[in-house]
Amino acid sequence: MRLTEFWTRLEEAFGPAYAASIASDQVLSQLGGRTIEQALAAGEETHVVWRAVVSAYPDRVPARLR
């Protein structure tokens, strides 16, 4: 998954403002206790980060975006 697609999916699932907040503020255990931004900056693959988001917010991410 390309980085632009990742951000598009995140914004579609959460809305632009909340997506930015989640990316910078929410620590996900599935990412080793890092935020989305930290994981991506460390070189984590976007599909791995996306799976962590889906796992952390199963009720929020629509099935078509999984």
TrEMBL record:
Pfam families: DUF3046. This is DUF3046 domain-containing protein. It comes from Micromonospora qiuiae.
